[in-house]
Amino acid sequence: MNEPPDSGNDLVDPNDAVMESAATSSPLPEPPIPAMVWNDPAGSAGVRVPVPTDSDPENIAEQLVDAGNEQAGSEQRQAAQDVFAKP
Questions:
Q1: How far, in Å, are 27, 62, 65, 81 from residue 17 at the CA level?
Q2: Structure pTM?
């Protein structure tokens, strides 16, 4: 006699739906084996990479400054020619 009245709702409980799909789904695939071994012994040798000779920071900075000065001079000369070329 203490049963709740039937409201007529045919809604599916979301928890039941999730549990049912989890029970019927296949297990997750195993992760791929990494291509690189990270636990090499401490004595293992690496590969030496040659250091480029032009990587000196002062040399690079000087090259950038020189290129900027050349470009600025070229632009100034072009602007001067444009001003004097107009009648």
A1: 18, 69, 68, 79
A2: 0.34
Which amino acid makes up residue 76? Q
Using DSSP's 3-state secondary structure scheme, residue 38 falls into coil
54 and 60 in contact (C-beta within 8 Å)?
A: yes
CB 87 within 8 A of CB 81: no
Span 26-78, pLDDT tens digits? 677 777 776 666 666 666 667 787 776 666 667 788 889 999 999 999 999 99
Question: CA 87, CA 81: separation in Å to the nearest integer?
Answer: 12
CA atoms lying within 13 Å on the CB side of residue 23:
6
In the structure encoding, which two tokens stand for residue 85, read together?
Answer: 């070329």
Q: How far apart are CA 82 and CA 80, in angstroms?
A: 5
Half-sphere CA count of 57, side-chain side, radius 13 A: 0
